[in-house]
């Protein structure tokens, strides 16, 4: 599957999608999250991290730009780096911070506001767009690499109809 779209009627749908997506993730993925403020990017990321076993608080890295987490996928410890680039003034800030080193075959990188650094970011394996739609959200997932297609093929999610 290269694309997945759904309408999530309430926040519980966003959390359920995050949990389902977590079960499909593998190390090495780069995921872009697009959407306006309040669209649910951090809520989706929080749901993924909690479903992967992180028990602590998941905060938006709006001021720190990046928050690292270690989770277990299968029997392996995997680093997940949650980026929020909303406050970045330029793509060079991303490079100056040394963030490129996180993008490798062992780490999952989830990036909110990727357009702030897209000239220096590696291309995404999956691009996720969230938009407020009434009380819920419209979500679109697009696989943009072989690894992204494999991930979406593992996704088992039935939206709350």
TrEMBL record:
Family per similarity comment: Belongs to the TsaE family.
State the encoding gene.
tsaE
Keyword Ubl conjugation in record: no
What the entry lists under NCBIfam families is as follows: T6A_YjeE (TIGR00150)
The protein's matches in InterPro entries, at most eight in alphabetical order, are given as: P-loop_NTPase, T6A_TsaE
Q: Which UniProt keywords apply?
A: ATP-binding, Cytoplasm, Magnesium, Metal-binding, Nucleotide-binding, tRNA processing
Q: Gene3D superfamilies under this entry?
A: P-loop containing nucleotide triphosphate hydrolases
Location(s), subcellular: Cytoplasm
Please name the Pfam families in this protein's record.
Answer: TsaE
Q: What is this protein called?
A: tRNA threonylcarbamoyladenosine biosynthesis protein TsaE
Predominantly, its location class is cytoplasm
